[in-house]
């Protein structure tokens, strides 16, 4: 058994796995450290049974409590699935509109070989060229809405690299990870198309798609999959959709 490696990578998800692949192809010895188990789907198991449960985002464990000092929702109850890390061990903190910090109680990652790529909807959208230069784009503007405290111009930053420099690596990641979708209707330049065919939408995605079409949103098949499978809180999504439909009289 080898004990010396050129590179050690922590995590086998959508970031670590393509990097490991690239390094191995270049002749480097690589060790990947993954805290979660190797779960196999039905077609990889001799007994024909899947190691995954019926829904990896289905919370089937006992009730837990947030024990993170200083967060606004400390002691709030939460549940986790068999592939999610314990929030108290790996908290994901966000700042709400009231300025208070909270720990998310929704699943946001997976401790399993393959990481979040085992759970997500096969979609990962690129940043646009403007996303990488938000400071320059917003400098001197006086038409920014819903930003009374000037947070956008104060906090926005430009990346040290451009979209053009990043684009070849987007293309490599889309090929190695195996993203599903289409370049159609994406407002960003592509030097090639490495996408796998779009996945069929699930019922939640179809409901959201119909609602968005009603309020005049321009969609492609990316949006349909994204809405239904990408770690978004479905209840919040549907609430938002209903509010939008009501606003437009539907």
Distance between the termini: 65 Å
Kindly report the spatial arrangement of strands forming the biggest sheet. 1-2
Q: In terms of per-residue confidence, which ranges show pLDDT below 50 for 5 or more consecutive residues?
A: 221-235
Query: Residue share in helices?
Result: 25-40%
How would you classify the helix and strand content by structural class? alpha+beta
Q: Measured on Cα atoms, how large is the radius of gyration?
A: 21 Å
Biggest sheet features: 2 strands, parallel
General form: globular
Q: What is the number of helical segments per DSSP (H or I, 4+ residues)?
A: 7
Average per-residue pLDDT, rounded, comes to 82
N-to-C SSE string, H for helix and E for strand: EHEEEEEHHHHHH
Strand content: 5-15%
Number of strands: 6
In short:
With 250 residues, the chain is an alpha+beta fold. It has seven helices and six strands. The strands form three sheets. The chain has a two-stranded parallel ribbon with strand order 1-2. Strands 3-4 form a two-stranded antiparallel ribbon. Strands 5-6 form a two-stranded antiparallel ribbon.
Structure report:
The chain is of the alpha+beta class and 250 residues long. Among the domains are: 124-180, no CATH class; 200-250, no CATH class. It contains 7 helices and 6 strands, in the order E-H-E-E-E-E-E-H-H-H-H-H-H. It has helices spanning 16-25, 134-138, 151-155, 163-178, 203-214, 221-229, 234-247; strands at residues 7-10, 30-33, 64-65, 77-78, 93-95, 101-103. The strands form 3 sheets. The protein has a two-stranded parallel ribbon. Helix 1 links the parallel strand 1 and strand 2 (30-33). The longest helix has 16 residues, at 163-178. Residues 221-235 have low confidence and may be disordered.
């Amino acid at each position: 058994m080898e004990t010396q490696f050129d590179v050690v990578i922590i995590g086998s998800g959508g970031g670590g796995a393509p990097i490991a692949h690239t390094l191995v192809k270049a002749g480097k010895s690589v060790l990947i450290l993954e805290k979660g188990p190797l779960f196999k789907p039905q077609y990889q198991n001799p007994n024909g049974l899947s190691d995954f449960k019926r829904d990896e985002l289905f919370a089937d464990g006992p009730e837990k409590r947030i024990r993170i000092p200083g967060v606004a929702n400390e002691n709030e109850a939460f549940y986790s699935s068999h592939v999610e890390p314990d929030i108290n061990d790996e908290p994901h903190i966000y700042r709400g509109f009231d300025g208070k910090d909270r720990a998310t109680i929704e699943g946001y990652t997976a401790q399993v070989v393959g990481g979040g790529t085992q759970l997500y909807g096969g979609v990962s959208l690129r940043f646009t060229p403007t996303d990488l230069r938000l400071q320059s784009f917003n400098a001197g503007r006086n038409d920014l809405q819903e930003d009374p405290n000037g947070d956008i111009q104060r906090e926005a930053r430009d990346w040290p690299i451009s979209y053009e420099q990043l684009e070849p690596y987007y293309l490599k990641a889309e090929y190695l990870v195996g993203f599903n979708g289409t370049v159609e209707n994406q407002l960003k330049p592509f030097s090639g198309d490495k996408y796998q065919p779009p996945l069929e939408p699930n019922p939640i995605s179809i409901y959201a798609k119909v609602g968005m079409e009603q309020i005049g949103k321009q969609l492609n098949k990316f949006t349909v999959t994204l809405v239904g499978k990408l770690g978004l809180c479905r209840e919040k999504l549907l609430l938002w959709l209903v509010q939008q439909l009501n606003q437009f009289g539907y």
